[in-house]
Amino acid sequence: MKKRTPVSSIMTKDVVTLTHTDDLVTAESLFKKHHIRHIPVVNGGGVTGMLSYTDLLRISFADAVDEDEVAVDTTVYNMFTIEQVMAKNPVAVQTTTTVKEVAEILANNEFHALPVIDEGKLKGIVTTTDLIKYLLSQY
């Protein structure tokens, strides 16, 4: 296994993002459309938070098992803003951070995705799924 592999080699570079002015209905639509579980919340290129699909499930009555469900409980979503639901000031890494360092951060915390930032700008996102795929590619 390569010991100094940078996270830039396994991260998702084409990142779906939200802004604090987007609503939670839009967020849920993006989660389902792109089959993702984490979305960075940006402001002027900088990351101000992370929203996870689990964050939405915590506040909604949506059936988490049936992902083809078209009806969204917009009443509940309209009671909250992105800023109220997102994790603020998320831990972030740089493109040069090693895969090992990312694995240590994720293993020791209760979140499953990290924004990858260089010079204050979002460059990508790395998730536990990315780490598992990388590990599998080593065998």
Automatic annotation (TrEMBL):
Pfam families: CBS (PF00571). The keyword Protease does not apply. Residues 11-67, 86-139 form the CBS domain. Keywords: CBS domain. The keyword NADP does not apply. This is CBS domain-containing protein.
